[in-house]
């Protein structure tokens, strides 16, 4: 419980800092990110429980990575993160999950995610800001990547890359659980543009 409270306080501080850096009021951030002002006020007070989609919309609107909203200060030159140490940010109805492992620093950060999808389980994502590129590398099993309505099979040992400013869906395929590593390449945004 204390770990969850600390994570909420870090999230609250980072959202407030990124919002102020971007020069946005609570009303304007809420309008752009499609999040109610009440939810934003609660979030900035370290209350509530924002879902993964809300965090993605806030990060996109603020021009930062999801993990930039969730991480505390850097711990040193090298970060090693265990999959068990990264809590799932999305949990599917069939046992699938997505864990944000880490984000690189700098003006154009890269998020590294671990995903698990059961056969037939899917995660639909809204379009991200222009310039965001995602890659998916399937390590075991199979998936179907749907980008702007077109289906693309991706099997173990294959990697796909796409511009993520279109609707996209990750779907487990075949008969076994699909494991994949996903990266999100974020262009320099308003928060880093100075």
List the defining traits of the structure above.
194 residues, alpha+beta, 4-stranded antiparallel β-sheet, 5 helices
Care to describe what's here?
With 194 residues, the protein is α+β, with helices and mostly antiparallel strands. The protein contains five helices and ten strands. A hairpin with a 5-residue loop joins strand 1 and strand 2. Helix 2 packs across helix 4. The longest helix has 20 residues.
Overall, the morphology is: globular
Largest sheet: 6 strands, antiparallel
Distance linking N and C termini: 37 Å
Beta-strand share of residues: 25-35%
Average pLDDT score: 85
Structural class assignment: alpha+beta
Alpha-carbon Rg, integer: 17 Å
Q: Which helices and strands occur, and which strands form pairs?
A:
Elements: H1 2-21, H2 26-33, H3 37-44, H4 52-62, H5 66-70, E1 88-91, E2 97-103, E3 110-117, E4 122-125, E5 133-140, E6 142-147, E7 150-155, E8 159-163, E9 168-173, E10 178-185
Antiparallel strand pairs: 1-2, 2-3, 3-10, 4-9, 5-8, 5-10, 6-7, 6-9
Helix pairs in contact: 2-4
């Amino acid at each position: 419980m204390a770990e969850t409270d600390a994570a909420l306080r870090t999230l609250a501080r980072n959202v407030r800092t990124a919002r102020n850096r971007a020069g946005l009021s609570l009303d304007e951030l809420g309008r752009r990110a499609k999040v109610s002002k009440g939810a934003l006020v609660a979030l900035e007070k370290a209350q509530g429980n924002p879902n993964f989609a809300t965090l993605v919309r806030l990060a996109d609107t603020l021009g930062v990575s999801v993990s930039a909203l969730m991480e505390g200060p850097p711990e040193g030159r090298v970060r090693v993160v265990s999959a068990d140490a990264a809590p799932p940010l999305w949990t599917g109805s069939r046992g699938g999950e997505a864990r944000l492992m880490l984000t690189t620093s700098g003006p154009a950060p890269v998020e590294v995610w671990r995903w698990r999808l059961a056969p037939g389980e899917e995660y639909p994502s809204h379009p991200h800001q222009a310039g965001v590129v995602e890659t998916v590398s399937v390590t075991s099993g199979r998936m179907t990547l749907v980008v702007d309505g077109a289906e693309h099979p991706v099997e173990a040992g294959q990697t796909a890359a796409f511009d993520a400013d279109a609707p996209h869906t990750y779907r487990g395929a075949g008969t076994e659980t699909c494991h994949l590593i996903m990266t999100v390449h974020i262009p320099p945004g308003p928060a880093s543009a100075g």
